[in-house]
Known about the structure:
This protein has helices at about 25-40, 50-55, 60-80, 85-90, 105-120, 135-145, 165-170, 185-195, 210-215, 230, 235-245, 260-270, 320-325, and strands spanning about 1-5, 5, 95, 100, 125-130, 150-155, 175-180, 200, 225, 250-255, 295, 305, 315. By secondary structure, it is an alpha/beta fold. The protein folds into two domains: about 1-80 and about 315-325, 2-Layer Sandwich (Enolase-like, domain 1), CATH 3.30.390.10; about 90-315, Alpha-Beta Barrel (TIM Barrel). The chain has a seven-stranded parallel beta sheet with strand order 4-5-6-7-8-9-10. A two-stranded antiparallel ribbon has the order 1-2. A two-stranded antiparallel ribbon has the order 3-12. Helix 9 packs parallel to helix 11 (about 235-245). The protein is globular and about 60 Å long.
Amino acid sequence: MFCEDAVGYGECTAGERPLFSHETIDTAWLIIKEVLVPKVLNREWSSPSVLNEWFRPIRGHQMARAAVENACWDMMARANNVPLHQLLGGTRKKIPCGVSIGIQDSLEQLLEKIKTEIDSGYRRIKIKIKPGWDYDIISRVRKQFPDIPLSVDANSAYTLSDIDLLKRFDDFNLVMMEQPLSYDDIIDHSQLQRQIQTPICLDEPITSVDNARKAIQMKSGRIINLKLGRVGGFSEALKIHDYAYEHHIPVWCGGMLEAGIGRSHNIAMSTLPGFSLPGDVSASKRYYRQDIIDPPVTVDDDGFIHVPQVNGTGYEPKEDYIEKITVRKEVFQH
């Protein structure tokens, strides 16, 4: 996004296939090109939050909307010579980091990966689970690492018929169990949360502040994973954060394998006071040999990212490198 001398950068977190949400790279490209940019181009606004209102008639396509809106937030921060996190209302100078570890080929491989991440300083370990790779695996992890902050992410792999098994997870003093039931559910999660001690963390159902309000009122979970792309950008994320904070529901920043631009936005958002748990915002080198920003995101030995106190995100896109790896491009002019 360009406005006079200011440039803002956004990143769309949609995947190649509609496996996390209905959106894909191709649907987002079409929606941004044909719907969103025409609503923004040549219009004046005093705050990027106005875009959230302009986009409200559009049903869904939160990741496409977030890419455009977040670029405008970045642009406004740069135009006003303030750090993005300050523009959002964030105050933290550093943010605690956790990591997510997927299903491994063996228990030994999982234990080795956990040890590597702990030795790197990460302050929370989250492991993926599924039927057949759950209670016994968590038990072995807890035996090996009795004191680490440990979470599990079920990726909607269970139903209420598994409630007796899920109750047994209370044995492990978990920080949370993320999205154990259906990806769009808050009703069954409410029933499950009443019967277990482990806090449930909601992920995919939280697409708006209205959904967050309903989930909190129904006591469907005690923690919220807040992903910028999933909720449509900073404006809606701020509303969800504020509502959760008011109702004493911790939030943390989930990751979508963002490259550096999206990662820098996650860092800025994580400086808000309600982000009291380590998120999935980790170092660039965990995923990329070369990131698209300079400097790359780094994590110190104590598991913190230090938030840049300069204008914008504090991370500059490497435009020459981005141009080199670009496979398609669209330019809009007023």
